[in-house]
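sorry for the late reply, my laptop died twice this morning and i had to redo everyting from scratch. anyway the thing you sent over, i finally got around to it. pasting the sequence first so we're on the same page, its 1028 residues, then the predicted structure underneath. double check i copied it right bc i was rushing
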Amino acid sequence: MSGAAQPVEPGVARPHRLRIHLLGGFCVEREGGGSVAEHWRRTGARTLVKLLAVTPGGRLHRDQAMEALWPDMPYEAALRSLRVTMHAARHALEPELAPRSPSAYLHTEGELICLDRDLILIDVDEVTAAAAHALATGDRAALVSGLTALSRELLPEDRYASWAEERRRQLVALRSRIVPALAAVLAQAGETDQAVEVLRAELERVPAAEELHLLLARVLLDAGRPRQAVRQYHAARDVLAEELGVPPAAEFQALLREALDALTSPRTGADRTAMPLPPVLRHPHDQPLIGRARPLALLIAHATDVAGGHVRQGDAPLALVAGEAGIGKTRLVVEVARQAAMAGTQVLWGTCHTAEGQTPYGVFVDALDSYLAACPAVERATVAAEHPGLAAVLTTLGEAPTRAGSPEEEQARFFRSVSALLTDLAAARPLLLVLDDLHAADPASLRLLHHLIRTAQSRRWRFIATVRGDELPAGDPRRLILDTFAEQGLAVEVELLRLSRADCARLVGIPPQRARRIYELSRGNPLFALELASAGEVRGVPDGVRRLVSGRLSQLPDEARAVLGALAVAGGGAISVAELEAVAVAGLHPPLGGPAVAAALDTAVTAGFIVERTVTARGCPVTGYAFRHPLVELACAEGVGVASRRQLHRAYAETVLVQRPDAVEAAAFHLSRADDPRAAHWLRRAAERAASLFANDSACAYYADLVARLEPDDPAAAAAARLDWGTVLRRSARYQEAEEVLRAALTSYRQSADTRSVVRAAIALAEVLGRALRPQDGLAELESVRHLLDDRPVPGDEGTTDRVDLELTVGTMHFGSGQYADALAALTRAEHAARQLDEAATLPQLTRIECVRAACLLVTGELGAAPEACEQALRLAERCDDISLLARALSIMGELARETGRLDVARDCARRAVAAARRMGDPAVLAIDQSNLAAIELLRGEHRRAAALATSAVRLARSLGRSWALPPALANLTEILLRTGRTGEARAALADCEQAARNSDDPQVLDRVRVLAAELAAEPAAASGTGG
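ok and here's the structure:
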């Protein structure tokens, strides 16, 4: 390979300079004009120029170049390829180069390959020099210019190329010096907002950079924003614990104490203004608290253990007060909250309402809206500005903004905003959040609660919730979530027992003879005892509150009974006076006007049936009324006849549509109970809203009601609703239910001869069967509809799109069955069909095609072709902005990096995949990605972290029943236990894995089971010294 640089002869024009761009993408330009090849004849030539350009000095030994370009090729063959590549590169850089003439730009010096640095300028070198100068001088403009340049990615098309990793690390290190330097210059100039923007933008890129968190908190504190500094500390603490497993440094903890001191100093008197108590605490209770001294002391200690500003590590942040209906849970917690407030704790109170369906995040909306409604308008505006994610759910913050992200992103944004608001509230004083009747909460509220209590152990928050365990059947997902709280050490349960005979007598305060009878009838239930005592002489044994309520209702005027019936039909919770008055006019016979309703409500309050409550209407606090106890409410509701109940629901629906048009759930609830034709429209809106908020369980409940309503009169609309319902069920990993729903939709479409819908339903059903470890059944469904695409093709792009989806799903089913050649063939057919359409319209399908193709190549060991498919899948996933596709592409990229020994890249991809899976809410995908991360941590020597991640992944996969996630998760757990010397546990895990693998018939897992079984069989021999 001759070709050393030659001096320019006199009279010969000096070659033009070349400029090589690496930041933002590879490009070569010639100064003064002249063409440079836009399309390189050999990709190896382009890669060689890139390799030299990223190498400091532009000089590289030929053996290093051959190792980077052709690592698996024999030496002599690689040397021949290098000569050809050098020739192609010289002519690409200098097209006019005559044959056998030396190149002005690319030459050799012995065994070194060199770029001519006099004639070639490389943007990375220029940026590096300019950034070093900016750091040395502290010049603001230079720092801004350097940060802007370093914001462009080095060779994004070669993001995972190992030969560029060293230069990429150097640029990252340089950027990590530029950012704090620029922020410091901006802060010193008094431009705090700009400094904060620079730091937060960088933390989006490197969330675990503690020094940036510390600098940002310092900038905020020095600018007089201690609350935001405290919030930044907690954000740093969370990410450091999750990513690195370490607490913030001592310097950061000292800054936290400084910020807390600033919050409680006299200059922050506005923060110390006492907030009003929740409505339930404002008036003393009319009944004494008897027989609850021990639980009262425990709960007060729980509520106030952060009052001094210190959090005891290991304490459960949530106390669950459990017991039967009427046992006095709410009465006890009212007393706890009142005493905690007297001790300086700020109290928020939210109640779960069973009416209006399961409103997403209903209990938190109740608590936060009540708090914000009592705040000045300026404070509400501040909250809306600092926590924009809340406005989508909280009516007190004004009109909800237009959603810009996916449902998963909006949910994560709302979670972060709630956490940040609670952090702000707890900065000046400890915070207690009471969640009453949590058993009636929607699953989305419980997921938010889980998110909050996971991070509450180092914050000044405490939660107390009342629950009735008998309200939740064993299979209810809410019970599973509540059980998880205790299993993870996040909650402590305080069980309230019935009162003793002596305490019951003290409670009712009547002569002993009658008190003994009441105790026998009430069996120590405080509510029953008080109801019996207030009802006078009781004959016989009452069978519950129903008879007690009936007896007391008979003593009320007709108007009061009618209004109580109307209030009971609302379904629970407090109802505003204005809404109740409108319903009394339109839904009662005879109609009752405002004065009559007011008098009836006063009578009911005096009789002890209902209490006044502050409710939020159009963002403002107004007076409302609610029943004292849900059992009393139920008894009153049962006294309303079927026809009257229907009329009341119709009146409520009309009132809600006028007074609360955005209350989609309330409208759907009342219209469906009224059997109104409009119910279908509002049920669909409620289902779509719940699904957009990722409240999958609520969405499924709405879809079930919607389908039942549509089926008799509009089978086509019912089938369409089933398709959407099946998607939500699949996303929730409820595969058996999804199969039933989608089969019903498929049957309906076949009867209607709707060809395209038959194909779409079959594809959706096949995807569910594949997830349920039945890929062959999925293939059978697909083959049963394939002929429809040929015999009765749908014209235009829709028919082509259906063919793409079908072939893609066929490929996915073949992959799940281990038939990789058939899978690749189906993917090729899908890609060929997709190329007939506009790329933007088929971007998601193209991404899935590349994901499955990359997985096939990876599994079959074709590591030469797999990287290109992986990179293409990731590029497409990033372009189509679909979180589920991004999670899949990251997972496959991580597996490739693990196979090739690039463990840092593998861990980074796996962590990003886990984060994406959490946001999309698919538990099966999360289990798989978490298990893959565990396997990578094992290879990195992080044995404890690997075991914890693998165990958690298996636990999650088991909770899904028969799912595609369980066999590989068990296989990874078995290997981790074996490699860490826990052979007994490994054998038990292997037994489970063998059973799951036989059920799944997954060839990959079956192969791993055989290998692991052989290793475990040899383990005793090796331990005794007789093995190899």
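The chain has 44 helices and 14 strands.
thats about all i looked at so far, will dig more tmrw
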